[in-house]
Amino acid sequence: MELIVSPTSPFARKVQILAQEQGLADDITLRKLHPIENADELAAINPLGRVPALRTDNGQLVVDSSVICAWLDNLAVSRGKATLLGEGPSACLAIQQLQALADGIMESAFLMVMERGRPPALQSGFWQERRQAAVTRTLDYLESGDVELMPTDLHLGSIALACALGYLDFRHDDMQWRAGRPLLTAWFSHWEARESFLATQPPG
């Protein structure tokens, strides 16, 4: 299998971590493409022009990090591994809900980075404020305890959240997301030491 990634993409990192945790890393060849610098090459693989994208051994294209993770998890389960997507409706919903919240943080944080890269005259303070507010609200919601976070939990939702918090450290250290959020800080400290997390650190 070939996985097309950008080393700085938190969505690509999510897929890589799941692959490592499910024992699939040796089955995957990584191909690094920059969505802007290698735009034409990437678009020839994925019509959306986004990473990650997966090309299976039979040539099938799989796009979107959540879809790729689900496909890889199903492959791992077929080989005898336990699913990381949850067993039963309640567990599946909780995991998918946490993944959706984490993906929302990553999407907003990524768009903030893209906005900063535009010429100053074209940057929108309105949209930057809305995106940062979305990140802040979601972090506060997770800190509130309405979502159960266990440091020892390993599933797609926890993987996605770890990638989201790691991306905030990488691109938005000025946000100081740990301030006033001891629950999230303690939870993330366990993930920071995990082998799959360390092995997928973005460059720099």
Automatic annotation (TrEMBL):
Alphabetized GO MF terms:
transferase activity
What the entry lists under Gene3D superfamilies is as follows: 1.20.1050.10, Glutaredoxin (3.40.30.10)
Q: Cellular component per GO?
A: cytoplasm
Q: Which Pfam families match?
A: GST_C_2 (PF13410), GST_N_2 (PF13409)
Keyword Transferase part of the UniProt annotation: yes
User: Which intervals hold domain GST N-terminal?
Assistant: 1-80
Origin organism is Alcanivorax sediminis
Name of the featured protein: Glutathione S-transferase
Q: Taxonomically, which superkingdom? A: Bacteria
- Protein keywords: Transferase
